[in-house]
Q: What sequence folds into this?
């Protein structure tokens, strides 16, 4: 299927430590699919493989039939896969509008010379992209901040701007890495509403990593649960939240990582490196 994401047998090892071990799941076109699990479960590693930051040791990831594991990040983005980050990755000194324009880069056809010389074709294209950026800003609820430097805005607004930049890429699949982390209740609800509308109005697929289980259970069509790099459960949210293996993982029942499996601390150290 054209926009189906299929993860199969995905394994990632770092110096003998296994961060992901034979993980598999499918994101259906137009669906919201959540990847959840305790800290150190392998969620960020999974996202880093899907976006081309990490290389898989074994396994396959295909999107619309194209194998992603051999592609560089910019090639994956060119296929229509956009990503937000757990830690805000915006240019703090640029305006909101210019940050969103960075998301239009893969869609820009005018060459560097034409843009630099401000030739008529480049000016017309720039105007079209800026008009689209303004529409997206309004859609996400940050239209009043277009001229403001990002670094001057509240944290919750910055998180929505990062989502807007992802949408500015006109993605077919949007990867959201903890989109409501650090937000208060009102901000979380606003972000959830935008995600629901993005899926419904734009018809995109969404894969999200999130610790807010209330949000996951409300938004997700399917949930994949990781623990110590392994897939321990998957299915509709109502089934997953009753799964005994999931309850053990989240309630802290005594279970130790198998030999050679990355612990939470080890994976977090790699993420900071």
A:
């Amino acid at each position: 299927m054209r926009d189906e994401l299929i993860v199969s047998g995905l394994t990632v090892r770092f110096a003998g430590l296994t961060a992901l071990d034979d993980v598999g799941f499918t994101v259906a076109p137009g669906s919201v699919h959540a990847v959840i699990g305790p800290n150190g479960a392998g969620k960020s590693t999974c996202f880093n493989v899907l976006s081309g930051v990490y290389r898989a040791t074994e396994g396959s990831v295909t999107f619309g039939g194209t194998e992603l594991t051999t592609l560089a990040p910019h090639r994956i983005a060119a296929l229509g896969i956009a990503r937000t980050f757990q830690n805000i990755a915006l240019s703090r000194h640029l305006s909101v509008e210019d940050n969103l324009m960075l998301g239009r880069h893969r869609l820009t056809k005018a060459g560097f010379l034409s843009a630099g010389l401000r030739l008529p074709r480049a000016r017309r294209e720039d105007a079209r992209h800026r008009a689209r950026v303004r529409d997206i800003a309004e859609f996400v609820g940050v239209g009043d901040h277009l001229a403001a430097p990002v670094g001057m805005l509240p944290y919750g607004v910055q998180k929505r701007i990062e989502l807007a930049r992802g949408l500015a890429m006109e993605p077919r699949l949007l990867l959201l890495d903890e989109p409501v982390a650090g937000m208060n209740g009102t901000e979380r609800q606003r972000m959830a509403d935008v995600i629901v509308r993005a899926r419904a109005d734009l018809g995109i697929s969404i894969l999200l990593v999130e610790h807010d289980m209330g949000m996951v259970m409300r938004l997700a069509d399917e949930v994949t649960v990781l623990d110590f790099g392994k897939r321990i459960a998957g299915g509709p949210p109502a089934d997953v939240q009753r799964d005994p293996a999931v309850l053990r993982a989240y309630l802290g029942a005594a279970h130790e990582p198998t030999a050679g499996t990355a612990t939470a601390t080890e994976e977090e150290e790699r993420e900071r490196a």
About this structure: The chain has eleven helices and ten strands.
